[in-house]
Write a sequence for this structure.
């Protein structure tokens, strides 16, 4: 899979996505500052969200529209989305700024109008949020744009994931990056269930990433070891800016640590074959090998008291020990000489 010309897969270091979400806190200048900070601290891409309060919900005071628990407790849905949205009139300016800053930018649309706006901006990929995975008409509309789809699975049942992938593949290009996700804000490491990375890879035969809402890197590192090719984290320039998503977002130092640690983890995985790294070769000398431990003359018979398996490793391998016993020497040797085939008849 390629996004904005960059290949994403096991042969490449993990793709790091910084989720801006509501962390612009109502300021386009802060949004730009956050994009630049993401670039400077190792993110491969910045992701925004494209919606309006009216496209998400009703401006309604009925009890159904009041958030009663969790991070956003006390908000009316309409008020939350009014505060958190990235205004449509910002989009082109942010896309242009990201391009100039040499960082990929894409977005999560929440309705068809948002998809059309992003398509006009030539977005390199679409993200489907966990909350929208059941909106199959939206997924169908996105898929028909024939761009890569990043699909988050928070809260979704197996059947819901099956349905979403089926629609995305049926109507789209088939380029799907499936994100394991736990939709809790913040999420606990204990709830991470990172083994789902393996399950998704085996069941769906697609690239798999982790949309991570924990506040440390433990789950991300575990995911990389199990084959995750992308990590997404909510990102804020500084937590001195208070917003709806700030409590579960990471700051620049943490983003830099995420990039470095996941890359090191990926490098540590290696190829999984029997080829040894060149760095080991200098230590072969510390293996055991066969050495004469007594002075001996040509024609003497080698016995177990004449030869030992010792360090260093310049002599014959210890596996030949039984093979050389009772053989005759064809030249004299001294204590400390290596055992070699050219001194044995």
């Amino acid at each position: 899979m390629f996004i904005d010309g960059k290949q994403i897969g096991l042969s490449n270091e993990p793709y790091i996505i910084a989720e801006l979400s509501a962390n612009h806190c109502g300021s386009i200048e802060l949004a730009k500052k956050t994009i630049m900070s993401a670039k400077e601290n190792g993110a491969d891409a910045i992701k925004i969200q494209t919606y309006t309060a009216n496209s998400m919900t009703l401006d309604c005071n009925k009890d159904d529209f009041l958030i009663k628990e969790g991070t956003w407790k006390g908000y009316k849905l309409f008020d939350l989305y009014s505060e958190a949205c990235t205004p449509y009139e910002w989009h082109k300016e942010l896309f242009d700024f990201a391009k100039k800053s040499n960082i990929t930018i894409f977005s999560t649309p929440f309705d068809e109008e948002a998809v059309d706006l992003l398509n006009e901006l030539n977005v390199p990929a679409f993200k489907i949020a966990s909350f929208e995975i059941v909106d199959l008409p939206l997924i169908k509309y996105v898929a028909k744009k024939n761009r890569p789809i990043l699909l988050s699975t928070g809260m979704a049942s197996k059947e819901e994931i099956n349905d979403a992938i089926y629609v995305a593949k049926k109507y789209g290009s088939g380029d799907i990056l499936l994100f394991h996700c736990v939709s809790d804000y913040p999420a606990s490491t204990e709830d991470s269930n990172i083994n789902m990375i393996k399950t998704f890879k085996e069941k769906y035969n697609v690239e798999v990433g982790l949309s991570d809402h924990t506040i440390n890197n433990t789950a991300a590192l575990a995911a990389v070891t199990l084959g995750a090719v992308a990590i997404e984290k909510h990102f804020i320039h500084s937590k001195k800016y208070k917003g709806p998503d700030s409590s579960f977002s990471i700051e620049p130092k943490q983003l830099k640590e995420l990039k470095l640690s996941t890359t090191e983890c990926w490098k540590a995985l290696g190829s999984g074959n029997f080829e040894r790294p060149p760095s080991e070769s200098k230590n072969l000398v510390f293996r055991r090998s066969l050495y004469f431990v007594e002075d001996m003359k040509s024609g003497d018979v080698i016995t177990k008291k004449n030869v030992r398996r010792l360090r260093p490793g310049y002599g014959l391998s210890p596996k030949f020990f039984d093979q050389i016993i009772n053989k005759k020497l064809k030249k004299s040797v001294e204590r400390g000489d290596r055992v070699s085939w050219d001194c044995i008849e």
Remarks:
- The domain at 281-343 is CATH 3.90.1210.10 (Type Iii Antifreeze Protein Isoform Hplc 12).
- The longest strand covers residues 45-50.
- Residues 29 and 94 are 10 Å apart (CA to CA).
- The chain has a mean pLDDT of 96.
